[in-house]
Amino acid sequence: MKLSVLALTGLMSLSLSTKSCVQKVKAYDNDDFKITKAEVIHHSDLSVSVWRIDVKGTAGKTTPIPNGSMDGAPVLGYVFPTSLKPTDVGFSMTEAMVAMALTSHPDFDDTPIWDENNDTDFANDGIIWHTHWVVLHEDKRVPGGLAVKQFTKADNVTLPPTNPGMPMYMDSPGFPVTTKGNTIIVVIPDYRMNNQTVFTYDAVATHMIVNASKKDMPMLGVYNVLSIASGDLSLPYTVKNK
Predict the structure, then answer these.
(1) Looking at residues 26-39, what average pLDDT do you find?
(2) Contact 184/49 with Cβ under 8 angstroms?
(3) Which of 118, 175, 234, 242 has the largest CB neighbor count within 10 A?
(4) What is the pLDDT of residue 123?
C-alpha cells in the first residue's frame, strides 16, 4: 500500500486534535517532546550529515515508564520521516516511508551488537537513546495511524546486517546520539544512506507501544503523537549543506 503524505497528514492531524480510545500518557505529553526546530545539515568535508531536533524542554530527559515486560512496553521517539527510499538504507524496496528514529525503551534492548552505556553488557541499555531506521506505513488499528511495517518469511525481505532480528522493517545501525540541553542529535555517515544528501524530511515526537501477543494488532504502532515540527507532516524541510 502506497503511503501518501496527504494520508499521513490527515492521520497525524486527527491524532493531535481528537481524543482517542487510548488516552495520552500525561508523563510524556510535556515540553521535552514539544519540537521547536528540526534540521539536517550535510558536512561535505566530513561526508556525514548531522540530524538535529530542538524541543521546548530538555531533549531526552523524559524516558518511558517501565512496563515490566516487552508486551505492552512503551517506546518514546524523536522521529525524522523522510523521502529516502528503503533501498537507500539497506532494506528491500517496499511502498512505505523511511524514517530515522531516536528511541528509548527500558523494557528491552534491540541493539544486540552495540553497547550504548559501555558496561560490557550488550543487552541492558534499551533506555539509552539510540537509533533505528524504520519503514512506516499507514495502520488505522492504532490511534496514531502509523506502524512499523511487518513481513513474513515468505516475503523474502532483505534487511541490513545490523537489524535486531524482528519481523519488521527495522535496523539498529548504531549511529551516535547526543543530548544536550534542548537538543538531540544523531550523526550519520553518507555511505550508510547510499550517499543521499538531497531529500526532504520532517520531525515528530511519538509515544509507541510494543505488541507481542495480539495477532490482529501491529508489533510496533504509534499510539500518541506528541508534536510535529511542520504541524502537518508535509515533509517540508530540505537538507542544508555546509
Answers:
(1) 96
(2) no
(3) 175
(4) 84
